[in-house]
Sequence to fold (308 residues):
Amino acid sequence: MPVRLFLSSGDLVADRRFDFARDLQLKGDLVAAADLLLQATELAPGFASAWFTLGEIRERLGERDAAISAFRKAQVTDAEDRHGARLRLMRLGAEGLADMPQAYVRALFDQYAPKFESALVADLGYRGPALLFKAVLAARAANRKPAFFRRAIDLGCGTGLAAAAFARNVDHFIGIDLSPRMIEKARATSLYAELEVDDLLQGLRRKPDAGAELILAADAMVYVADLAPVLVEAERVLVAGGVFAFTTETHDGEGVILGEGLRYAHDADHVRASVAAAGLNLSQLEDRSARNEDNTPVPGLVAVAAKP
Ligand SMILES: C[S@@+](CC[C@H](N)C(=O)[O-])C[C@H]1O[C@@H](n2cnc3c(N)ncnc32)[C@H](O)[C@@H]1O
Fold:
């Protein structure tokens, strides 16, 4: 994503070295950039942005161990891990697959919010909400049920694109998102009766049993490593016959991986097994890409699961 977090070191000289290093990095002089970043961290040892950028550069230079040690420093110097050094460590195989740091997701989307729709929809051809809408209509038609829902929960609602797609079919929309700035944008649409700044799993856990007829997660499960707890909560929160529809990215291997784009990809068998283990019936699981990258559709799945 085209946003970059910068956390000042509080030391003007160190910050300036960082700026020079970034210039050099952008011009392709990685060795000189790494040298300047090291100087910046000598001046300000707690400079998380410098450690993180150093990790990236060392990785690009093929210096895996040095990259790992810089990313670890970035983690230690910013306990919340707003840069997402943990994800880089997972990609380097230095840490096992785990959830994303919440502060990283929040910082990423808070920065992204002002240009989210133009960047995702216009530049990447984002079509997650439209895919979900079509899939839910088809699943309801196949079950001879109307596609109208009194209460719906939009997990990782972002700026409200999924609520816009389902606006005529839902009476009362609840949106949950980790990013306050994305929630501000969603609020401006007036499509939601309720909006909550929260982790989607924690938010779902607070909902009463059998209180929703529809749950949506458009391009949100790609930020969730383990689908199982979300599916279990969705099953509890849905009324009998209620529907959970979500997109995710996928891959040819087995299980869950963290892809190059720093989003999780779940293979189809894993999705099937997680849905079944949660006590939901899979009405649809189709290969559908929700976005492009480098003008190529990113492999994805659209899933519609119903509570028996
Ligand atoms: C790519 S955007 C998609 C937004 C919206 N669903 C849409 O279709 O346009 C992903 C959203 O999920 C949110 N998100 C990611 N992980 C989350 C989590 N664990 N809990 C709540 N929201 C999360 C992000 O803040 C972001 O707004």
